[in-house]
Design goal:
The protein is built from 4 helices and 4 strands, in the order E-H-H-E-E-H-H-E. It is an alpha+beta fold.
Length: 101
């Protein structure tokens, strides 16, 4: 089964609020749905197109788990906190589980 991912491009407007109200509560929601960080705002280059200052990728055991986490009651208050302290583009995508070159 292919994994699911959240790809988030984030511009933080209020670092303290973002850290204390969003990031601090995120592990509880992620744990329930099997989510884990793949990237968490490390070094970034944008050789083409545009991005925001932070790129976060979260991996879930399935696409459905990624969707369920985003729509869950556990994530709802965190989503509101994120929106209060940052601007984000979030994409939920199914991983590729086929043959590789």
């Amino acid at each position: 089964m292919a994994k699911g991912y959240w790809v988030a491009l984030v511009e933080v407007k209020n670092p303290d609020g973002y850290k204390n109200e969003y990031v601090a509560g995120l592990p509880t929601a992620l744990k329930k749905f099997g989510g884990r960080y793949v990237t968490r705002g490390g070094q970034t280059q944008v050789p083409e197109g545009s991005s925001k200052s932070r790129v976060v990728v979260l991996e879930f055991p399935s696409y459905q788990a990624a969707v369920d986490c985003y729509n869950s009651p556990e994530y709802a208050p965190l989503k509101a906190a994120r929106k209060a302290h940052a601007q984000a583009d979030i994409i939920i995508v199914e991983g590729y589980d086929g043959a590789q070159p």
